[in-house]
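FIELD: query
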Amino acid sequence: MGMKATAQDRVVPERSRVWLWRRRVLVAVTAYVVLSYLAAWFVLHPVTFPVRLPEYLAGSKPVDVTFNSSDGTRLSGWWFTAPHAVGSIVLCHGAFENRMGVIDCVPHLLGAR
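FIELD: result
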């Protein structure tokens, strides 16, 4: 004696398919929200490194300088005096960095003629 499929039996797989798609959408939305939050957090809280003058530049005796920009932002850095200088160079760091990102250029610039 064979069993016949009823209309109720056909509804159950359709319901499970609907729940499967709902779960997929929920997982996708959750992943989007979590990844967006993490991306925003890392942009607003970048990794910072301590600002210390390297030993190989200790003999050049830089001066700590601080001044305010036109919009009120406090800017700080080091002033290096080069012998026989005829001009000045301002080195600016990139995004998510501090002045240590460009410090390796200083010895070459101090010795330039």
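FIELD: remark
The CA atoms of residues 17 and 23 lie 10 Å apart.
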